[in-house]
Amino acid sequence: MDAFDPKVVCFSCDFGWGFVSGHEALSPLVENWIPVTCSSKVDSVFILEAFEKGADGVLILGCPEGRCHFEDGNFRTEKKVYLLQKVLETYGIERERLRMVLSNNPEGERIPELVGEMKQALIKLGPIEKR
Amino acid sequence: MAEKPRIALCWLASCAGCDEAVVDLNEALLDVAEGVEIGLWPVATDFKYNHLESMADQELALGVLHGAVRNSEQEEIAKLMRAKSKVILAFGSCACFGGTAGLANFRTREDIMNWVYLDSPTVVNPDATLPRTESLVNGKSLTLPEFYDHVYALDQVITIDYYLPGCPPPPDLILNGINAVISGDLPPRGSSLAPRTALCDTCPRNRTKPERLEIKAVKRIHEIEADPEVCFLAQGVICLGFATRTGCGETCIRVNTPCRGCFGPVPGVLDSGARTLSALSCLVKAGEYGDPRRLMESIDDPAGYVYRFSQPTSILGRKRRVENV
Fold it and tell me: Does ipTM top 0.95?
C-alpha cells in the first residue's frame, strides 16, 4: 500500500503571515496555500468545500490576540472554527482536522513548517472516513 | 368540455404532513378538485401503483412528490412519477432538501438497524432478526424494499421542475403553485415557488432588531419568557430567519417560536447551515480570546440545529443516487 500523503489546505492572513517574503516566494513552498486578507474571510463554506474536494485537513493562520487589522476578525474565525469542529465531528471527521493558529510570522517561513506539523498529525489520524 | 388536467400526489419518505397541508386548503380544495382530475393520491383516494404504470408517459399535467428517498420503493415511485408527469413539483422540505429525515445521514445504516432492531431498550428480539430484502416463508418468497445507506433529496434521484419548500408548505403557496401549473403561468424551470428574500425581511419583529446584534448568552426558547414582540436574536434565542427563505407566513414567529429553517436557503446559497454557522460566530459575543468555547458550548448540537432540514443537500452530506440528474 502507498504511504498516506495527507492534503492540507492552508489559509493564512496576509496581515500577519508572510507579507515580507510575498506570495511569489512562498507559493512554491506550500501546497494548497490560500493567502487571504483576513482570517475571517475564510467562510465556513470554503472549509467544508475543502473537505468535500478531498482535503484531509484545513489549517487557518490568523493574527495574534488583539492584533487583528479589522478589530476582531481572528476572534470571529476562532469561534467559527470551534462550531465547525463540532459539525465536522457529527459528519465523522475528527476535530483535529481543522486547526487554527493565532500568531504572526512576517517572513512566512513558519507557514510550510506548520503545514508539515499538521501533515504529521494527519498521518497518525489516517484518511477521512466520512459518514 | 375539454378534458380536465390530471394531477397526482404521492408520498415517499414523508410524515404525511404535506398531505395534511393540502387537506388544509379547506374549501379551496373543492375548487381545485373541480378544475383537475386527481389521478393518484394514496392518502385520500383508492388506487394501485399499476394505475400509474398503465398511464401514458407525461399523461399527468402535474406530479406532486413529497418526502425524501431512503429506500428502493421510494426511488421506483419517484422515477415512475417522473416518467408519467409533464411537471414534477418537489413539495415540502423533505423533497426539496431531504428534511428532518435527512438527519439520519449523521448515522450509518448499520447504526440505525442495530438501534432499532437490536439495542434499543424496548426491543425484544432474541433471534436478532433484521429486515431483509427477501425472505422465504413456507416456501414462498417475501420481499421488502432495500433500505439505502443514505437519505436523498428528490433532485438527487430524479429531475425536478419546481420546488415548494416548507414543513409543510403553507396553503397560499400551494394554491398559487397548483394554479400556476394548471394555467401554465410558470417561472423558469428549477425555480422555487416561494419568495426570494430571507425571513428577517418579512418578520414582524424585524424593527426590534438592534443595529448591532450581540448575543451575550445563548438561550433556548423554553429557558426564557420570550417577549412576543422582540427579535429572538436580540433575546439570545437562535432564530434561523436570517438564513432562511421567507414565504411561510411567519407562522412560527407568530406563536413565539424561533425559525428553524424549514424553507431552506435563499436563492444562490449553497449550504445554508454553513452560512448560518458563519453568521452565528459573528453574532455570538464571547468573553476572551482563546476561549470562545465558554459561550459556544451552549450551542449543544450545531450540526443538528443548522442542518435540521437540509443535511442531504449540504456540502458534506450531498450525494447523488443518479449521476446525470
Answer: no
